[in-house]
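tool_call: predict_structure(chain=1)
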Amino acid sequence: MMDTDRMRPLAVCLAAVGLSCALPTGASAAQRPNRPLLSVGYRSEADLARAVAGGRAEVVRLVPRLRVAEVRPRVDGFAVAARRIDGIRYVERVLSRSFYSEPALFPTTSAGTPYEWQFAATHEDAVPPEVLRAAGAVKIAVIDTGADLSAPDLAAKSPWTYNIFTGGPDIRDVNGHGTFVSSLAAGSVANGDGVAGFGGDAQLLVIKATRDDGTLTDLDESNGIMYAVDHGARVINLSVGGPTSSATEQRAVAYAAQHNVLIVAAVGNEYTMGNPIEYPAALLQPAGSKGRGGTGLAVGASTSDGSRAFFSNAGTQLSLVAPGLDVFGALSSLSSPDEYPRATLPGSTAGLYGYSSGTSFATPEVVGVAALVMGANPFLRATEVATILKETASGHGAWNPETGFGVLDAAGAVARAQGKNGLVVHGLRSGTRFRFQWFSAVATRYRVSLRIDRGKTRVLVDNTTTTSASVTVRRRHRYAFTVDALDATGAASATTNYSFKY
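tool_result:
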């Protein structure tokens, strides 16, 4: 499925405030000093107009949802002057972002090792089929270099696509990074060909946030986050980062958190180069937190024996790790064979495949499992999903700076999310109205009963396919609900109780 939503054209955005939309071209551009691009956060477009008035700067593009503009100064001292204008929230340099892959590493996987060894290493192969299917209600967003939609594993998902520069659906991946990431996060598990992703039947939204030369900035990343949140993503993959953060990035991350969207980011591949703290990962899992709290997950890379991959950053900002050394995935047909060497996949009838390494590729595995957890229990909040993934990792609740809470455990996380019998419930009161919800990845029919105080139990709904009911409640009474998941004969296969006093 192709998303045809367009960004509001720059000319329309600026016409109301009388700003020029011209971009520098030809000789006039060459004659101007090479001043860095700036991000200008504004309260209103009128405030932005005052900041750039008189030709002091030209607006390259707007991100209206964030109220930030990318501008090119035409005079020295623009940033200082703009900061003095009431209504200008901040002026800062646009930051470059890098991808955390090591495609040049020669695959070291031993002969005879299963191609997708990462499945067994994370117990992904033990996730119940019904949970893989339930993840179809969850949308994963990958913000990256695009994707090759001719790859069978991605084509079978019919992903939504969006290019942040054109506002259109073209996401051709000439780099290859985004295709590999997307295949790991959400490659089809049902097409019978190629590789399978970690997200089961999860929906896929691929957002191309890079130019064709592969460059990416914090503004591009933030624009992608906003689009993903506004278009229904419940979990976002960011296999990118840099040594500093920005107000623009922080606002986008906060926007996702406010909308109950889980962001998962790579911690970086610079362990041998000083092991720096990288962003946005350190916004999601702050330095010093030792894996506790945070609004998202910061993911490192592990090897086949569960230890930290030699390149993977470590430290107090690390949440957990997932396989990231010589993992197997789908390749873009437009990518360089030197950067993404091709490997033969026996039995495959189409597509290109190969090995690659990096925290970039550990991250989508965690994203995929997050989608499984959300599918198994749709009532969990994003932070609760993150906590489950950390607590069920191989460290069994113990944290260390090398691997965080340990290696991702897909089956363990799903089991924790489902509870003892796979039947989960959720209740929310608003005034005197109480909305009760229930879900099981296995059952399709339910019976719901209610008992008030010590009165008789009465059936609210019987043999129903619905998953919610609302009742009127009164103060100083106790309400006890019982939900039975029914099998094909109408007998209860699982029962869960929920009670509260108003």
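agent: The chain is about 25% helix and 25% strand. Proceeding to next step.
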